[in-house]
Design goal:
Layout: H1 11-15, H2 31-43, H3 49-58, H4 60-67, H5 76-85, H6 88-99, E1 109-116, E2 131-137, E3 142-149, H7 155-165, E4 172-174, H8 182-190, E5 194-199, H9 204-233, H10 241-245, E6 246-255, E7 258-267, E8 283-293, E9 308-316, H11 322-331, H12 334-345, H13 359-376, H14 385-394, H15 396-404
Parallel strand pairs: 1-4, 4-5
Antiparallel strand pairs: 1-2, 2-3, 5-9, 6-7, 7-8, 8-9
Helix pairs in contact: 2-3, 2-13, 3-5, 5-13, 6-13, 7-8
C-alpha cells in the first residue's frame, strides 16, 4: 500500500516539501523515497550506502509495495548523489519544523558543542577537518539542530548562525569555552535565553579576575561564617552579606580506582566583570575538580600521590544556587556522552568519508533524525542502541510508524 501524508506534521509529510534539485532527465526515484529508504538503512545500523543498498535489496518486495517503486532499490551511487546536492538550509528548515513539534526548550538546558568529522577531511597536507556544531536538549536527549563549519576555530562564527535557527527562549544555554563571546551572549539574551559559559584562555584576563575574586570572597566568607557561628552560640544573630550571596555545593564520586571531588561556587555578584563590555552578566561561578587515580605497587599497597586539580571559571546571566550551577556545568557534557558517543559508536559518523557537495551536513542531519527517532520511540525504550537496531531490522512496520505517523512529543 502506498504511503499517505495524513496528518501533515509527520516526518514523511514535512520532508516531502524539500525541493528536488536533480535533473528530471533520467530521474528514476523520488527524492522522498530515497530519504525514507535511508531512514530504514540507518535505523538498521548501516553506516555506508553500499551495504545499506545491499540489505534494502533483500526486502525489495516490501518496499515496492510500500513506496510503489518502479525501478527496484536505488544504487549506492544514487543515494550518494542525492544527499550531495540537497540544499542543506532547506533540509535544516524541515528538520526544525519537525523537531519543534516534539520538544520544547523553555525551562530546559540546551548544550551546544562542535564535533569533528575526521574521515571527511581530504588526504592532503593541512586540509581542515569539517566540524558539525550540534545543539542538544539535555533533559530529553533530543538534538534540535546542527550547522557545519570548516574548523574548530570557526565555532565562534558558527554558533551565532546556529542560534539563528533555534528557539531557545526560556532555556539555559551552555557551550564550551570557545562560546564565551560578547556577540554570542548578546544573541542569547536577545532571544530570551539564559547562559552559563566557561571562561578559559580565550578570555584570560576575565578568567584571572573571576578566579581572584572568587578566592578572595571564599576566604572572607569562611571567616564570616565562623564569626556568625561563634555569635550564634551566644544567642546573637549577625548579618552575613557574603554568605547570602555565596553558594557552595560539593559532590564526591569514587569507583574504578579513582576518587573525584567537585566543588561548585557561585558568587551572585558581578562587580569583578567590566559591565560596559559584559552588561548581561549577573553572577560568576567557579568549579574546582580534584581527581585522584589510585595506583598500587607490586605488593598491592597504595602509592601516595597528589590529586590533579582543575579550576574553571564561569559567567552566568542570572542569580542561582550553587547546586543548580553544578548541574549546568556537569550536564553540559551530556552532549559528548550521549549524542556524540552514539553518533560515533553506533552510527560511525567520525568514519564517514562523504565530503562531495553538501554530503557532510546532509548526512549529519540524517543521523540526527535517526538519533532522535531512537530516543523518541516508546517501543524501544530501555534497549541498547544495538538492540534497537536489531528490533528495527526485524520489524520494518515499526519504522513505518515513525515515518508516517505522528510521534508523541518529548516536551515534558
Amino acid at each position: 500500500m502506498l504511503y499517505k501524508f495524513e496528518p501533515l506534521n509527520t516526518l514523511a509529510a514535512i520532508f516531502s516539501t524539500i525541493e528536488d534539485p536533480r535533473d528530471n532527465r533520467g530521474k528514476r526515484y523520488k527524492l522522498l523515497d530515497i530519504f525514507i529508504l535511508a531512514v530504514f538503512g540507518l535505523l538498521w545500523g548501516h553506516t555506508d550506502f553500499t551495504n545499506m543498498a545491499l540489505e534494502l535489496k533483500y526486502k525489495e518486495g516490501y518496499f515496492t509495495e510500500l513506496l510503489g517503486l518502479e525501478n527496484g532499490i536505488p544504487s549506492h551511487d544514487t543515494f550518494s548523489a542525492a544527499f550531495s546536492i540537497i540544499n542543506p538550509a532547506e533540509f535544516m528548515e524541515c528538520f526544525i519544523q519537525w523537531i519543534v513539534e516534539l520538544t520544547r526548550t523553555a525551562g530546559k538546558h540546551v548544550a551546544i558543542d562542535g564535533k569533528a568529522i575526521r574521515a571527511a577531511c581530504e588526504k592532503v597536507y593541512q586540509k581542515k577537518v569539517p566540524m558539525l556544531i550540534n545543539a542538544l536538549v539535555v533533559e530529553t536527549g533530543i538534538c534540535i539542530g546542527q550547522l557545519r563549519v570548516e574548523a574548530k576555530t570557526n565555532e565562534i562564527k558558527g554558533i551565532p548562525d546556529l542560534l539563528d535557527w533555534l528557539d531557545v527562549k526560556g532555556a539555559v544555554v551552555t557551550t564550551d569555552a570557545i562560546g564565551c563571546q560578547k556577540e554570542i551572549v548578546k544573541i542569547l539574551v536577545g532571544k530570551g535565553a539564559e547562559f552559563v559559559l566557561p571562561v578559559k584562555d580565550n578570555q584570560a584576563n576575565m578568567h584571572n579576575d573571576i578566579k581572584l575574586e572568587m578566592e578572595t570572597v571564599i576566604a572572607e566568607q569562611r571567616f564570616e561564617a565562623e564569626r556568625a557561628g561563634a555569635y550564634a552560640e551566644k544567642g546573637i544573630k549577625i548579618e552575613t552579606p557574603l554568605t547570602d550571596k555565596m553558594g557552595v555545593h560539593q559532590e564526591l564520586d569514587q569507583g574504578h580506582s579513582r576518587i573525584e571531588r567537585r566543588t561548585y561556587y557561585v558568587w551572585n555578584d558581578a562587580s569583578c566583570i567590566f559591565k560596559d563590555e559584559w552588561p548581561e552578566v549577573a553572577a560568576v561561578g567557579m568549579a574546582v575538580r580534584e581527581r585522584l587515580v589510585i595506583h598500587r605497587d607490586e605488593d598491592g599497597e597504595i602509592i601516595a600521590e597528589k590529586p590533579t586539580v582543575e579550576t574553571e571559571t564561569y559567567i552566568i546571566s542570572k542569580h542561582m544556587a550553587a547546586e543548580e550551577f553544578g548541574c549546568y556545568s556537569r550536564h553540559h557534557w551530556a552532549i559528548e556522552n550521549s549524542l556524540h558517543w552514539v553518533l560515533d559508536d553506533a552510527l560511525r559518523e567520525d568514519r564517514c568519508t562523504a565530503r562531495k557537495g553538501h554530503a557532510t551536513e546532509n548526512l549529519g542531519l540524517m543521523r540526527k533524525i535517526v538519533y532522535n527517532l531512537l530516543k523518541l520511540d516508546d517501543a524501544v525504550q530501555g534497549m541498547s542502541v544495538r538492540a534497537k537496531q536489531v528490533f528495527y531490522r526485524n520489524n520494518p512496520d515499526a519504522i513505518c510508524r515513525l515515518i508516517f505517523e505522528v510521534i508523541p512529543g518529548a516536551s515534558s
